[in-house]
Specification:
Blueprint lengths: L25 E5 L4 E5 L23 E7 L16 H6 L4 E5 L5 E4 L3 E4 L15 E8 L2 E9 L3 E9 L6 H18 L4 E9 L5 H6 L1 H13 L1
Parallel strand pairs: 2-3, 3-4, 4-6, 9-10
Antiparallel strand pairs: 1-2, 5-6, 7-8
Amino acid sequence: HDAESRITRHLVMPDLVHAFPHKKCETFDWPELGVAVHGRSYKDAATLDNLATSYSPPVPGRFNLAILHTALDGHAGHAPYAPCSLDELRNAGHDYWALGHVHEASVRSEFKHVVYPGNSQGRHVRETGAKGAMLVRVEGGQVVNIEHRACDEARWAYGAIDTGLCRDERELHDAVSEVLRGAVSESGDRAVATRLSIRAAGPVRQLLLARPEAFRADAQALASA
């Protein structure tokens, strides 16, 4: 994960947590499981070196899992930490690259697998949708299935409303209610915070411009209903 900070230096980790060294790649070999795990940490938060080139080669006869905190060849909204290419990771020979840094879950490559699980909890309104972890099933040394499992406690959502489609205030309230119901339905039993984006046009434009605080109060009341 990220480099140590003033916060992480004071955290007491469980016994099963291991911090990889930052000077070189380290490999854990579990013959009884048929698994080898490769990883390297950061010394500095803004690490701009290509760390992928320093990773140990795959251990023969093992399922080789490599862990790396990287932006790959760039990702919008994320600093270009530990840059490398998909081809570099695919050609390294490891069976599965578990990547950190980017907070959106995505499978960037299959066979060889390069996967971002995303973060386990959305931190702010720009990190919308389900957040969690990847459940990876391996049989005979091969990945047979990858499934994203949501494990967030609360969820962020975004809804856009065009008031040009609303003839009056009642229809605007109906549109707000529909967006909020959709966000609640998709979040399951989690708490959900929804940001509404209103495009003011049509008959209700002047109403919104004249009494924005009243509309804000109405929207909050609808959210609490």
